[in-house]
Structures are given as C-alpha cells and as structure tokens.
Design brief:
The structure is a single chain. The protein is an alpha/beta fold. The chain has a single domain, classed as Rossmann fold. The chain has an 8-stranded mixed sheet, with helices on both faces. A two-stranded parallel sheet has the order 7-8. The longest helix is centred in the C-terminal third of the chain and has 24 residues. The mean pLDDT is 96. The structure holds NADP nicotinamide-adenine-dinucleotide phosphate. NADP nicotinamide-adenine-dinucleotide phosphate binds next to helix 1, helix 3 and strand 7.
C-alpha cells in the first residue's frame, strides 16, 4: 500500500503517539509526519530518540510511572488544548532471559506477570486516565491502544503465552469500559484496541521463524494499515478490537 492519506480528520489536528522508540511507534510518527492534516506530533517515549522537527516534539514518558504521565500531559498542554488522535504503541512480550512467553503454566512467575501487566495493561490505562480529556468534543477523535490478536479469548486455540495473552485481554476490557464512559461524555470520540499484524520489530524478533511467507510486515507497512483502520472508524466502532485489515476480532 502507498502512503495512506487520512481523510476523516480535520485540518490542523494534533497527534500524540506513546512508545515512539519502538518499531511500530516510530513508523507511525514517520507516516503521520507526512499527513497534511496533521499540524503537530507529540512523540512520547521513555527512551530519547532523534527525529525532532518543527512538526515533531519529543516528550519523555515512562508509562509505569504515573507522575511521568502527568508531567507529559502538562508539557503537551503548554503547546495545545486538544489532541485528535492518541495512539499507544508501547508493550512487551519478552525481556532478556528473565521474561519469556510461558510455554506451560509451570513457567508462571509472579514478578514477570506483574511486570507484563504493569506495561501492557496498567500503563495504557493510566495513559487513558490522563490523556483522554484532551480529545476534542466537536469532531471525530480517536484513542487507540495497540493490543494483539493473541489477546482474544475466543481466538485462543493453542494456549501458552499466559502473561502476554492475559495482559492484552485485560487491555481490551479496559478500553471497552473506557469507551462506554467516553461515549456518554464525548460521543464523537472513539476508543479502540488494534492488532497491528505480525511486524518486524524487536518484540517479534525471537518468534519470526514460524511466520508464514508474506505475513511479516515491515513497520511502515503496519503503520499504514493501522492509519487506514483508524481513518475508517466511526462512532459505532468504539469499544472494539480491530485487526490491521479492518476486520473485527472477537474478544
Ligand atoms: N511486533 C508485532 O509483531 C506485534 C504483534 C501484535 C501486537 N504488537 C503490539 O504492538 C505494540 C508495539 O510493539 P512493537 O512491535 O513496536 O514493539 P517494540 O519495537 O519492542 O517497541 C515497544 C515500545 O514499548 C516501549 N515501552 C516498554 N516499556 C515502557 C515503559 N515503561 N514506558 C514507556 N515505554 C515503554 C518501548 O520503549 P523503550 O525503547 O524505552 O524500551 C518501545 O518504545 C505492542 O503493544 C505490542 O504488543 C506487536
């Protein structure tokens, strides 16, 4: 797909991407910076990275530290009153030798489970808590958190990956509840979770050998697909989990 051009957002929209040192987050910033409707991108990340321009500001954030989230929002509010699109692209699946997806319940480890829930579920929930009031009320706006197809309970046929699957299922539920509350307060705003496909990033690297030919996306390809899905979202889409191709994934 060529660079996707957003059509459903008004001109001069501001965007915040969280997790922009990661493969997909970085690609989202690159694709969004080419969009003429986007005025400014707040590139929020724990690890500082290059790439600041007139259109892109770096905002430090650690999603496991609520005070850091509050500081990030404070800094953003000095530059804009509204954010039309918020995308959370943070997450972990493995971390060195200590945290690996569990093949059996015998691998379950309390410390690893709390770590993965802190990053994949609680962090995005706290981002929502502090960022969601930035969504405008007079036009379409979107809050999207990257989840995963393996977080679907109905779609789980092979088991394993207890912590990652459960943390993403819990993230889907967080966003579902949030979407219901949000639709009462801000009916134009849409909150969803998205599956980006299997993407060639550090997160998927150790597990790529089993990916069928043509099914491992480059980050910019996934980012393009995700922007198309986001562009096609309507009020009735809120609260759901969508795949990179726009298909609805059952919870
Ligand atoms: N890649 C895939 O095949 C795939 C498939 C399905 C779903 N997803 C989902 O897509 C999202 C993005 O994944 P990716 O493939 O782009 O992974 P990635 O390249 O490993 O990037 C992960 C990002 O999460 C950030 N992060 C982790 N802990 C953080 C914290 N405490 N505070 C702030 N940032 C933190 C990392 O920041 P640092 O650089 O500071 O560590 C990095 O920016 C994840 O939610 C993942 O579950 C990916």
């Amino acid at each position: 797909m060529d660079n996707y051009v957003l059509k459903s957002f008004l001109d001069n929209c501001d965007v915040a991407i969280i997790g922009t040192s990661g493969g997909i987050g970085k690609a989202l910033v690159a694709q969004l910076s080419k969009q003429s409707c986007v005025r400014h991108i707040f590139s929020c990340s724990r690890t500082r990275h290059d790439g600041e321009t007139d259109k892109i500001s770096y905002i430090p954030i650690n999603i496991t530290d609520e005070t850091s989230i509050i500081s990030a929002v404070k800094e953003i509010k000095t530059k804009t009153k509204k954010i039309d699109l918020i995308i959370i692209a943070t997450g972990i699946l493995h971390q060195g030798d200590t945290l690996q997806p569990e093949k059996t319940w015998k691998n379950l480890d309390a410390e690893n489970l709390s770590n993965i829930f802190r990053i994949n579920t609680i962090g995005p929930a706290l981002i929502a808590k502090h960022f969601i009031d930035l969504l405008p009320k007079d036009r379409k706006s979107v809050f999207a958190a990257l989840s995963a197809r393996v977080g679907s309970i109905e779609d789980n046929y092979i088991g394993g990956w207890y912590g990652y699957r459960s943390s993403k299922a819990a993230l889907n539920m967080m966003v579902k509840s949030l979407s219901i509350e949000l639709s009462r307060k801000n009916p134009e705003a849409i909150a969803v979770t998205l599956h980006p496909g299997t993407v060639n990033t550090n997160l998927s690297k150790p597990f790529q050998s089993s990916v069928p030919n043509g099914k491992l996306f480059a980050p910019h390809v996934s980012a393009n697909y995700l922007l198309k899905v986001i562009d096609n979202l309507q009020s009735k889409s809120t609260g759901q989990l969508f795949a990179w191709d726009g298909g609805k994934i059952p919870f």
